[in-house]
Amino acid sequence: MSPFKGQTGLKRILNASGYSLDGLRAAFVGEAAFRQLVLLNVILIPLSFFLNVSRVEQALLVAVCLLALIVELLNSAVEAAIDRISLELHPLSKNAKDMGSAAQLVALTMIALVWGLVLL
Fold first, then answer.
1. Do 114 and 68 meet the contact criterion of CB atoms below 8 Å apart?
2. Annotated binding-site ranges
3. pLDDT digits (tens, 9 = 90+) for 57-115
4. Annotated catalytic, 72?
5. Binding-site sequence positions for a divalent metal cation
6. Torsion angle, CA of 60/69/37/29, rounded to 10 degrees?
7. Which residue out of 27, 61, 72, 111 is catalytically annotated?
8. Where are the domains of the chain?
């Protein structure tokens, strides 16, 4: 058991919520790509409510937008962990960062495909 896993119940939920908000704040302040995705979500998600689409289609439109935010958070976390280990250039570090970037490219492609298919 980890010594950092001592909280249970409501205290654990409150702590976890605080950590999550800290992570969102850190991403927003420190990651330009995250801020750009937030802006994209601020535009696309409200727009989805004004489109003449089914509820399932609207859910897909919103879900792919939120998925891109999740992928960016994970990509930023991987990059931060790699940088914490070492700022030295290393092929494995490059691969990890490039794979995170590739995951974000896939997520952005999903946004384009889903929105394109629903709107056409």
1. no
2. 12, 19, 31, 72, 79, 88-90, 97-98, 101
3. 999 999 999 999 999 999 999 999 999 999 999 999 999 999 999 999 999 999 999 99
4. yes
5. 31, 79
6. 160
7. 72
8. 32-119
Neighbours of 52 (CB within 10 A): 6
Confidence of residue 8 (pLDDT cuts 50, 70, 90): confident
Residue ranges at the known binding site for ATP:
12, 19, 31, 79, 88-90, 97-98
What is the rounded CA–CA span in Å between residue 50 and residue 62?
12
What integer pLDDT is reported at residue 80 of this predicted model? Answer: 95
| Whole-number Å distance between alpha carbons of 68 and 115 | 13
Which of these CATH numbers, 1.10.3720.10, 2.170.270.10, 1.10.10.10, 1.10.287.3610, describes 32-119?
A: 1.10.287.3610
